Amino acid sequence: MPFDTSLLSIEMLTAALGLAVLILGIISPASAKKGLGWITVIGLLGVSGAAIGFWGTQGSVYSGMYLVDNYATFWKLTFLVAAVLVVLGSMRYVDNLGGQTEYYSTLIFATLGMMVMASAGDFITLFMGLELMTISFIILVCFRKNESKSVEAGIKYILLASMSSAVLLYGLSLIYGLTGSINIYEVGRIVAMNPVSPALILGVVMLLAGFGFKISAVPFHMWSPDVYEGAPTPVTAFLAVGSKAASLAILLRVFVAALPGIWEHWAMVVAILAGVTIIVGNLVAIPQDNIKRLLAYSSIAQAGYILVGLVTATEAGIKGVMFYAFLYVFATLGAFTVATYFYNITGSDKIKDYAGLSQRSPLMAVVMLVAMLSMAGIPPLAGFVGKFYLFTTIVDNYLWLAFIGLIMSMVSVYYYLRVALVMYRDEPADSTPIKVSSPVAITLVVTMLVTLIIGVYPGPLSEVVNAAAHSFFLQ
User: Of 330, 322, 287, 303, nearest to 405 (Cα)?
Assistant: First the structure.
């Protein structure tokens, strides 16, 4: 069956960019490889421009196998923005570490996998995108191959990711066996017309377990702290935002589009999962003395907040998830970029070593503070608006979950401000100023400004996610 290849142009451009960076890295001399970071940034910005041109396009490839709509386009832009910021924030780190060719090309292919997931219209496409993303991240997690922690993190990630993928695939197989279709929207129509069977419920449970691993929801979060700590910090940042956002994109597509007919069977389970994830993530973050482990448990709690939007399975809930996921990218990347650069200068991830950071680098300290307060939901920062959108969707029927979110947000303020106190109150052991390189400074300033601007003026982003959420239901 012929199809319009232009609908796949964003993905083809991304794949071409990844291959181009790989080939350039192979044929160029070692002295020129430091320029690969800027080539990657320019290329990703070009792909982002092409993606913006797709806004308003509605179509599909091979009878719904691959979907192009505002919903998918929004997520693709989110992944591309995250990739650009990660590359900018990690140039100095990667230049010191070496392996620029492999790092940048693999990061691009991970982004491509996320794009495929966002547009997946059937189970096979979903799984192909998921595995492309996962395999790319496995390579990136153990990128520091001479360090035992990085290798250990890579081994843990590949074992647990393989197990979760197997569980997810088995759940998809059960649903296919019961419905006779792999098309997500066709599955939704068949499920709505037939009685619920135990096998279908088992399939849904397996889907929740598989996706729960990908977004680090409790009790499927056990891999996050160790992998986040052992992986190179820029990879940890991309894993925390990109992988989670892609998994949320397809999680919404599967549950809201394929399983709306049995909403009453999985809504309460998701609500409990969200509540437990919020509680565990915030409470276990309190005693952490390593900034990467603290941010890992914080990201687990953030996954719980985002899951709140799935509970109602409405357009408003999808809007809340997309709005919060977008601003979460900037807050998290701001914090992780500071952690990356600080480690690059000092070789330490210990919170106590951040003492006096406000004196050594005021920019790094203020970005870390703004990012953490935004994740805590303090007004007028973007995190407050995001949590407001999420929890207004559940107040009527799940007031207890809203209370959990409110209480745990106050708890999170404690461990976030503990880092702020170390940066602003304590005297530094080494008072040498930290000079921030230009790419890192760009990343820090952009993440901070976006976090502030969205908090004060959320209207434009709100209109964009409204259009994206509405297009979700037009397939």
Answer: 303
Q: Both tokens of residue 179?
A: 């419905």
Q: Determine the angle formed by the axes of helices 291-311 and 263-285, rounding to 10 degrees.
A: 160
Work out whether the CA dihedral 364, 458, 463, 255 comes out positive or negative: positive
CA–CA dist 283, 4 (Å, integer): 50
CA-wise closest residue to 235 among 137, 363, 361: 137
* pTM of the entire predicted model: 0.91
Tens digits of pLDDT across the chain (475 residues): 456 677 788 999 999 999 998 998 888 877 777 788 889 999 999 999 999 988 887 887 887 788 888 898 999 999 999 999 999 888 887 877 777 888 899 999 999 999 999 988 889 999 999 999 999 988 888 887 777 777 888 888 888 888 888 999 999 999 998 888 888 888 888 888 888 888 888 888 899 888 888 888 888 877 777 788 778 878 888 888 888 888 888 888 888 887 877 777 788 888 899 999 999 999 988 988 888 888 888 888 988 898 888 888 788 888 888 998 898 889 888 888 888 888 888 878 888 888 888 888 889 899 999 998 998 888 888 888 888 888 888 888 888 888 998 899 888 888 888 888 988 888 877 778 888 888 888 889 999 999 999 988 888 888 988 888 888 776 6
Nearest Cα neighbor of 33 from 18, 19, 23, 45 is 23
> Cα separations (Å) of 307 from 27, 115, 215, 435?
45, 20, 9, 39
Two tokens, residue 21: 């960076």
Closest of 15, 252, 219 to residue 116, by C-alpha:
15
Residue whose token pair is 């009790």: 219
- Three-state DSSP at 247 gives helix
User: What is the SS3 assignment for 293-343?
Assistant: HHHHHHHHHHHHHHHHHHHCCCHHHHHHHHHHHHHHHHHHHHHHHHHHHHH
